[in-house]
Amino acid sequence: MPSTDLFKLLLSAFKRLTTAITGPFRMMIVRVQRMFNVNIITAKLIAPLTKKVKSLITLRPQSRADYYSIGRYWVYKKLFLTLILALCAGVFLYFIMFAPKLPAQPAQPAAVRTSVTFAYDDMKLSDFTGVANIQAADGRTVFTGEIDGGVCSGSGVLYTRDGKLLYEGEFDRNQYNGKGVQYYADGAVRYEGEFADNLYSGAGKLYDGRGAIIYDGTFRAGLYDGEGKLYGESGLLLYEGAFVKGEYHGAGVSYYSDGVVRYKGEFFGGKPQGTGTLYSAAGKELYTGPMHGGEINYRALINATLAEVEEAFTETPKVYYDDRDSCFVFEQAGVILSTDCRVRVDVWEKPRSVEEQASEYYYLPDGTVYQPPLVQEGIQGMSAGRPATPAKLSGGSALFSPMAWFVPDDAPSSSSSRDEDATMEDLMNDLIERMDELANAAGNPPESSASEDEPPAADVPQQPDGETGMPDFVEKNISLYFEIDKDVWQSEAELDKSKVLVNKVTVMRPGEPIEEVEPYDDSLPPSIEDCVAIDFARQQQPTVFSNILFEMDKQNKLFVRLKNISYAERIVRRCYDWDGMTYRYCYQLDNRDAVMYYSIES
Predict the structure, then answer these.
(1) Do 415 and 441 sit in the same domain of this protein?
(2) Most-buried pick from 159, 261, 350, 428 (CB within 10 A)?
(3) One of this protein's Pfam families, by short name (predicted)?
(4) pTM of the entire structure?
(5) How many CB atoms lie within 10 A of CB 154?
């Protein structure tokens, strides 16, 4: 047998022998480890407890032994124990999750053990350096700590005359300097952080008497200064960001009392100023743009374009209008904007039947006349889907109305048959006569009635079911148009809103009159903006402006028509001309000190 094989045989025999000897010991070690294994111990403890709980919640009695006998009453044991357990769990959850937290009482610092004691007026104290106690005139210790040349310098503890803890931390020249903790009279922590010459300076936390945090951030000369967080009484954030001399100043975020973001952006002197984003109480973004004095910079909206305004305000404005004026209302932001471009809203009703389509024309905003294509056999002799000659009013204005007019094919154009000075009444009478003539002939129209340019009846395009064949603006129920020039209208979809300017801003809340200039009174009749502001004021106080009467036709969520405004009445205003703008503050008749709303215009 080779020596190599012999060595392997001996090695194998040695391993087997070692295993046989150490095996029992290994098993013993494993058993010991299992005895002290946390998971195994927990499982053994939990298993019977779980079984017991399951048995408790199995509310099914088996025998009389499952009941307690109390006089004439029998109480099921498991039910009784379950109710006790539920009550204890409820109390536990209440104190953990809902009960107000009790302020943590700070541990009282152990006095430095020293036998060296000086009276506060001891002359020897001025030459002492080391650790000592200093006593007041009544013999009570008011300071314990390090002293250098008779003054407190280093670590120490300061007490009030009645023995209550006032401060513990670092001293320098008898003043709080460095890190320390200041306490209320009842022992609750008032401030913990850095000090300089007895004032909060540096990083620190300020608490109220209940132990709730007020401020967490940096201080300078005892005031909030630098980055920090300010909290309300409920413990929710009121503001986080930059401070200067105790006021919000710089970039920051303010919150409503329930913790919802109120404003995010730049602050100046404690108020939003600069560029920022304003939010509603529900947390919805309302406005992003210039701010001033804690509110929207309304002056900056004057001469802003409608495109810029719609980009700044996130909500869709509601349009209020009458026959002469219009305005855009951002209800949640409380702002009414008037533009230099008059607005008109028209309601277009679809014809109810094919016969009505064949007998109705629509004057489009550009002045052309439109008739839907004919789809009914036997109705001939009328133009089939082609524009009629544009009809113009006196002064060259396009007839802009949802009214339907019937115009025959052989009607001459306005330029050749009607004088430019024709009145509206003449035009309407002429059109009505033509409607009557063609209506009488519509039952059996002669073949010669069709013009040479009119396609034969067989070529009239047929409309699929459910289609009216009218242009898009007629398909819509409501259309918004802007007067881009004298009697020249353009639809909102085609309008270049960068050319429409804001010329007046009305704020639907009280404002502070300007003190720099002398006011003057005016009593202008109510404008459409006044009616909107008064309507919102009446939602809060139904009796305000009782002398101003008007009606509102709220067609839908976006368009409101005002009617029957009482122009005979007046609104009491106090006006201020300041910095190129006119400010008009509107008051109640019987209270010249109560500003209800105000406006700004250039």
Answers:
(1) yes
(2) 159
(3) MORN
(4) 0.61
(5) 14
